[in-house]
Structure formats: C-alpha cells, structure tokens
Specification:
Two copies of one chain form a homodimer. The first copy, chain A, is α/β, with parallel strands linked by helices. Chain A contains 16 helices and 16 strands. Chain A has helices spanning about 25-40, 50-65, 80-90, 105-110, 115-130, 150-160, 175-190, 210-215, 240-250, 265-275, 305-310, 335-340, 350-365, 370-385, 425-440, 485-500; strands spanning about 5-10, 40-45, 70-75, 95-100, 135-140, 165-170, 195-200, 220-225, 325-330, 370, 390-400, 405-415, 415-425, 445-450, 460-470, 470-480. In chain A, the strands form four sheets. In chain A, strands 1-2-3-4-5-6-7-8 form an eight-stranded parallel beta barrel, surrounded by nine helices. Chain A has a three-stranded antiparallel sheet with strand order 11-12-13. The first copy, chain A, starts with 5 loop residues before the first strand and ends in an 11-residue tail after the last helix. The model of chain A is unreliable at about 295-305 (pLDDT under 50). At the A-B interface, helix 4, helix 7, helix 8, helix 9 and helix 11 of A face helix 4, helix 7, helix 8, helix 9 and helix 11 of B.
Chain lengths: ~525, ~525
C-alpha cells in the first residue's frame, strides 16, 4: 500500500454550501489557485447541476487551474453526470464524483427508492461517468449509518462498473474513531478490486479529524476535508488539522505523508475566511491566532523562552509568522502588482486597477500596509470582480448620543448618479438606509461582522455583511480605515451581488455527502 | 466501575489564561453560576497564587456557588498549596489540584529538577494538600510525553500520599486517541489504590475531544474540558462536544453518562463568548450557529422537512432555538428583573439599575428586545461591575469620505466631568482618540470585533475591544444600536479596566497542565 495520503479539498463544494456563503466565479478561482499552490491532490470545485453559477465556476477552475485533479459532484442521473462532465472535461486531470444515499432513512425519506433501485442507479450512474473519464469516485451517502452488507454490495457494484475511488462519508457526523476505522478496514477486506478508499467525515460531535485519521490508520489513502473545517452544519474535517496531525505524528501513522506545502496553510486559511466571511476562532488548532504560544501578530519578539516545552509545531511550518510590512504610500503600481504576484495573488485588468486605487487611498491614511492588509484589499476587489451596478462616490455621516444619526450617499449607476439620504438607529443603520434609498434594493441584514485586519489603532476595518433581499442571500465585504465607510462598501457589494443573483435561476437545495 | 463521567470545567483557569482574556471577579462569578446551573461536577475556579485577582475570584466563587466541587490549581510548593486552600476553604465541596511536570523536557528546561526531586515534591505537596481536605487531585504535567514508568511511579506516590483523583494531561496536544486510551488503561492497571482517573487534553492537532473520549472508553471517569474549547493555544477539549458525544453515542460508550443539563449548553457558550470576547466560529460543533441545518435564529419556521436525515442532535436539546422575544419599551423595572431572574442572570444594586437604564435607552430605539439582547446588556454591565472611574455623558461624531472624521466626548470622572475632541483615520478612531484625550489613558487596540446580537437591521451592535496600555491588557465590551457609540462604550470599559489593573500586582506567567 502506498504511503501517500491524498488530500481531497471540498471547501468549494461542501464548504461553499454553508449558509450565507456565496462565492462568485472570481472568488472560487482565487481559492482554487491557492489550493493548487498549497499542494492539495484533488479540488472538488462544485456541483454543476445545482446552478449556472456552480457550473461556470467548475468550468473556469477546470480550465485555469493546473496541478490537482479537478472534480465535480453529481447524483446518479444522466443529466447530472453529463453536466458534471461538461464542466470538468477541460481539466488537466478531470474526475467525476457520483453519489447516492445508502442508509435506510435517506433511501426512504429522501430518495424514496428500494435497495434494488439504488443498486440500479449506481450501476447506471458509475458506468455513465466511466464512459467519460477513467477517474471516477463513488460515495454512498450517509455511509456510516448504512447497513454494512448492503453498502458493501453497492460499493462492489461501483468498482465493478468503473469507480476508482470509494469515498465513505460520515454524512451526519455520527461516527467515533475506533468504529469508523473498523468500517474502513471491513470495506477494504470485503470489496474486491483496485480502488482507493477515502473518508469524508462531518464534525457534529467534534470527531471529524479523529475519524478521518482512524480511517487512514485502517488503510484509507484519500481524506476529504475543507479549509477551516467549513461545510454543512458543524463542517467537515479541517484540512489543516489532518495535514499537521499526519506530519507531526508520522511516527504513529506508520510513515504516511501528504503532498501539502504546510507553510501555505495560514494564508489559505486567511483567504478562505475573508472570501467566505466566516471568521476563524482564536483557539482554532493550527490556523487560529492563538494556536502558537507566542501570540503571532501581537508580540513579534515575545516568543517564550522554551518554545518546545509547550509547542509541538513550529509556527513558521504553517506560515503563521507575524505579517511583514511590505508597502507604503510611496509604492508605485508596478511594486504593488509585483508584491501581489509574490504573495501569489493574481489580479488583472479592472480588478487590478481598482485594487491599486483602493491601495493608494488607504496608504495615504496609513503609514504602512502589511501583507494581511493587501490580502484584505484584494479580497474586497475579488468580491466585486464581476460587473457591479453601483459604486460609491461619496458618503457623509453624522451621529452621536444626542442627535439622530443621518447619512447621505452618492453612487454611480452605470453612467449616471443616484443619491439617498436617511436617518437610522445608528450611523451604520443610517448609511444602509441611505444606500437602500439610492438603489431601491432593501432587505434584512442577517449578519454583520467587523474585524481589524491587523493590530493597532490604525488597522483597517474589515466588514462583512450578510444581506437577505427578496429571497436572495449575498454577503459583501468592505475594507477601509473607517468602519462606517467599510460598512457602506460591504453593504453596497452585497447589493451588487443581490442584483446579479436576481438575474439567475436559483440553486437547488441538495446537500450531498 | 461507575457509569458517571464527571465533568470538570476549566474555563475559568486554563480558558482564562488565553491571551487578551481578563475576567474580573463579577464576570467569573457569573460564569461559575452558569456552570453550576449547567450541572458540571467540578469548577476549576483559578490559580490563586498567580495574582490577587485570581485569588479573590476563587474565594468569591467558593463562597457563593453551591452544587459543584470548587477547586483551585497549585504547584507543589507549600506557599502555593496554602494559598489555594485559603481560597477554596469556604466552598461547600473544596478540592485542591496539585500539579508538577514529569516529562524530561519540562523537568530539565522548566523545573530544573531531577526525577528524585520531582518525586519528593509530589510526596510533600500532595500530603500538604491532603492535610487540608480529603479531595485532592494530582496532575503530572506533560503526562503524554513523560516516561510511562516514571509517571506511574509518581502517580503511585500521589495516591499513597492522599490524592483521590489522578488527572493525565496531554499538555501539548500531542496524543492520538488509540495511544492515549492505552496510556489511561495502563495507568489503571499499574497504579494501585482507590482513585478516579481524569483526562486533560489540548487540541493542537484537533484531537482533544477524541483523546478524552478514548480515555473514557479506557476507564477515565472525569474529563477536564472548557466551554467553547477555550484554553492555552488551540485550547482544551470542548465541554459541549464531550457531553453531546457521550449523550448521542451512549450505545457506543457503554452507557456512561454525565450530569450536564444539555439544554443550558447554548446559553453557557454565549455567556462565555460575550465575557471573554472570544467569538465562536459559525461551524463550531454543537454551539456554532450553523451546527443545526435549520439555521437557528434566522428562519424560525424554516426547519428542513426531514430533520433526522441530516441531524443527529435536536437543536432544543442543547438550547439552540431561536431566541424568543421577551421585552419591549413598555416593560417596567419589575418585569425586567423578573425576566433576568428567569434567564438565570442575577444582577443586584447598581449593576441592576445601570442595566435597566441601558435597557430603557435601547428599548426606546428598538421595538422589541430578545433574550440574546438582554444577555448582551447584562454582559456589558458585568464588565463594568466593579467601580469604574469614567462613564459616558455624550458623544458627537461626524465623518465620511470627504471630511476628516472628528469626535467629541464628554465623560464623568467621579463627581466631575472631562471632555475631549479629536480627529482620526475613521470615526471610531476619532472617538477612541477623543476618549484617550479626555482620560489621559492611551494604548494600542489589539483587537476590535463587532457583531450584531440578533439578526435584522435593527439589531444591537455588540463591540469588543482589546486594549493594551502601559503593558496592561484589558478587553471592554459595549452594546448600542449605533456601532460607533458601542465602540466608544467598549473602549471606555477597557480604559476603566486598565485603570483598575494598574493598581494591582501583575499575574505570574505560569502555564499549568
């Protein structure tokens, strides 16, 4: 058996299905490129049948990203599989990932199929996928709650009809390590043929990483996981924890290894957090800001004397050093784009121009900008990467404890201008009301988060707003030295996304493994 | 062997040692009371020798909180142990928790002691503790990296000299479940006597919960853990995950159970997050806002049709329902304090008056306040529970993209008034500068977080600021309908804390198990 454990990243599929996350094509491409740089083996880019947006993102990633296998999720129906293939066919290494549920509860309540019907679906679906590509993965959804014998029959059919990877999902996060390890061992013993076994574990009981590793111990050679542990409900196994556990405890895991460049883990985590709007908790293993005792980013020189008495991972191994200062107000356009390239961030054309203009505005107010600041600026521009209907011209706000807060905004709309003035419960509320008046798009702010990009009173404010309008949900992000201005930008970005979403068919609600 | 697994909560000791957390006595008491309500068996209230603040908090909890055992951490020196006993002696059920490192690296680099010296310390320390109380816990720090035979010798000495609980720490989060389970089993086989075995697992590789549960499978009957998984670096095993794994997979864990009232888990998590300023990530198991597929708090009626196809825990089991609307502007003082009592929040005297005034101010601007809103108001008042030097009279702010942001504040200082006016890079920056001018306390804002308490555009803004001034760190929290005003309140609360901290000796930097 090989010592290489393949890392299958599902941030863009299972992760992206989390409530309130809606990445556009440019954002997904940026994440996929970073995943390639990180060295993952397989990128699950999306679920093409779910929406036109999903399809376009998978297609764009398949065409642009080199290195990893690019896969798309698909149910067993021919329409699904054909659509998945259409999306990934241009990849350097395309894969189709076919799934169907095998647990009694899912077959009865969701599929309304008998065991024989499910088997027939597997035979037809896997064969169809195999007719397109030699790289076919099959997943029995809710595997850990399925009847083991029935599931093994289904897996055997999948292998016999062309599946090369068998992925065993603990869809509801019900497994515990010993038991899940035994399940993987039993499958390897029972199902004949040449295939790789994979795990896909959810974290509802906090055991996703442990279950995945128990799978590896039992012989699994692919682990499905997501950056920052994103995914449905409590998420998937966290990629960074899987990778660092295997690396740190190589002695225990019998010398297996992954191909991940661990020093890219911190940046990957930050990029995904920025673009999804999902914060990483301070005490998150590996990528949380407290993960190392020396408090990265706060006291650059405050490293404790006996590091190894309390740390088993060196912060630099995962790219968690304090951000270096890279750019100031005298930096030119060339230096700006050079620095972005060095950081592995690719912006072109309008997005690069916009980012540079924002950079200069910010550099004029701040003395120096760090790598993390630049990442934030680029993240905002990626968020508006698509054509946006509105952009901000000016903003004026007044408030306090004595006066009712009032805001005035002027926006461009295409070639023209629109403006709005409104009062609110607070200054940000007033700004939002003014933008709603100017654009005619109003809705409910589901969530509002502000964080400073770096430490210090002069830090950039980084605002994420989740907006629901007319049944559409979108998140927008804004970065500025002023939190009220950043909020206005974030809200406007969310409005621009809602406007775009309205013109598209809605995504199907299908959960997947 | 008993089926009862004792839950030992170390949120107030190991959790509170996290960077930037500094809870005052009132805040610690509030958390301890909630832990008692939650039904934990043991509360580790602090490390009395570390600082006067720690001592006072442990003493206050020992005197006030009924139900759980109250314990204090202590090194083996008599001064430490005497101080720990002094702090917990008035508890209904006092315990002393003595620790010393047994790994080669810790003995060499930190303790600078030989094996024999460590053994002598254990004999002396445990005997001293036992002379005060019949409930003594002993921990060999860095146990998972210790020589097993030496550690078992040390544990035997601890039992022979009076220890009734042996706690095995995986101090650096190095363990993996199978291995850690074997270690626990080996200790039970090797060390003679009548004692309870306990686990204390850190999460550096994402395995703290799995390791603790492997310990339970092997015979451990106490688990040390913290709410939201707080603790040094990547934190401890998350209390809520331990409890729900044992409850949900009772079939697997041989029928063991905990005494925790799971329906208090969500509220406990929110309280700890508010008071520590540590956000809970959305995809956190059990207590994250996405933990349940029906998106609690967003769509009250949007529960998916076949809940059990994707959920293994019912949201109501852990108290994660949408907050009910409880209070409006017409609610009186009596109704207000009644509601708080029903929610289990005890405020008295000035703090109650202050909270009621803030409630009325907010209720005048908002139509209705939810339970979560009330929790936030109370959390702000708890943060200022001690005597505070400054409080806000008025605030006026103006800014936008065209004008330089400018702020004016008026504060009370004792009987008098002070004011300040300043410009800034943003409106919040200007407000902070104005407060710094008025109070003469300036510093670096290490972190700044804003979240909305509930959904909706009329949600309260909840701001947490971590301030470092003159080598002191303090966090402040502010709640208002206006984020800029909430920021001013948060900053002012942090300033008030810094002023208090300055008058006290500094805490020792000792990490512990």
């Amino acid at each position: 058996m090989t010592n290489q454990v393949k890392i299958f990243d599902t941030t863009l599929r299972d992760g992206e299905q989390s409530p309130g996350i809606s990445l556009d094509v440019a954002e997904k491409l940026e994440i996929a490129e970073q995943l390639a740089r990180l060295g993952v083996d397989i990128i699950e880019a999306g679920f093409p049948i779910a929406s036109i947006g999903d399809f376009e993102a998978v297609e764009a990633i398949a065409r642009a990203v080199r290195g990893p296998v690019i896969t798309a999720l698909s149910r067993t129906g021919f329409q699904d599989i054909d659509r998945a293939w259409e999306a990934v066919r241009d990849a350097e290494h395309p894969r189709i990932h076919v799934f169907i549920a095998t647990s009694l509860i899912h077959m009865k309540k969701k599929l309304r199929m008998t065991e024989d019907q499910v088997k027939a679906e597997v035979v037809a679906g896997v064969s169809r996928a195999r007719s397109y590509t030699g790289d076919v993965e099959f997943s029995p959804e809710d595997g850990s709650r399925s009847d083991v014998d029935f599931m093994c029959d289904v897996l055997q059919l999948a292998v016999d009809n062309g599946a090369t990877t068998l992925n065993i999902p603990d869809t509801v996060g019900y497994g515990v390590p010993e038991e899940f390890g035994h399940l993987i061992a039993h499958i390897i013993d029972t199902v004949a043929g040449d295939y790789v076994v994979s795990t896909h574990c959810h974290n509802d009981l906090g055991l996703a990483v442990a279950n995945s590793l128990a799978g590896v111990q039992a012989g699994a050679r692919q682990v499905e996981c997501a950056v920052n542990g994103l995914g449905e409900r409590a998420g998937n196994a966290a990629l960074e924890e899987i990778v660092m556990a295997i690396k740190t405890r190589r002695d225990y895991f019998g010398g297996v290894e992954t191909g991940v460049r661990t020093e890219e883990l911190a940046r990957t985590s930050r990029l995904v957090s920025r673009l999804t709007g999902y914060p990483v908790q301070y005490n998150k293993a590996v990528v949380g800001r407290n993960a190392f005792a020396h408090e990265a980013g706060i006291h650059q020189h405050g490293v404790l004397e006996d590091r190894e008495t309390y740390e088993i991972i060196d912060a630099s191994t995962v790219g968690q050093e304090a951000a270096q200062i890279v750019m100031g107000k005298h930096s030119g356009r060339h230096a700006f784009s050079d620095t972005l390239e060095k950081m592995g961030l690719h912006l072109q054309g309008d997005a690069l121009n916009q980012a540079f203009i924002r950079f200069k505005e910010l550099a004029d107010r701040k003395v120096q900008l760090t790598e993390a600041d630049l990442e934030a600026i680029v993240a905002e521009e990626l968020g508006t990467g698509a054509v946006h209907r509105y952009s901000m011209v000016s903003l004026d706000v007044h408030g306090g404890t004595q006066a009712t807060p009032i805001a005035t905004v002027v926006l461009t709309e295409g070639e023209g201008k629109v403006d709005g003035e409104a009062e609110g419960n607070g200054m940000i509320d007033a700004v939002i009301a003014a933008i709603a008046k100017a654009t005619g798009v109003s809705g409910t702010v589901l969530d509002f988060k502000v964080s400073s990009v770096t430490g210090g009173g002069d830090a950039l404010g980084d605002v994420i707003i989740q907006l629901e309008s007319d049944g559409y949900r979108a998140s927008g992000r804004g970065v500025a030295t002023d939190v009220v201005e950043a909020s206005a930008r974030a809200y406007l970005n969310a409005v621009n996304k809602v406007v775009r979403l309205r013109d598209r068919p809605r995504r199907e609600r299908t959960v997947g493994p």
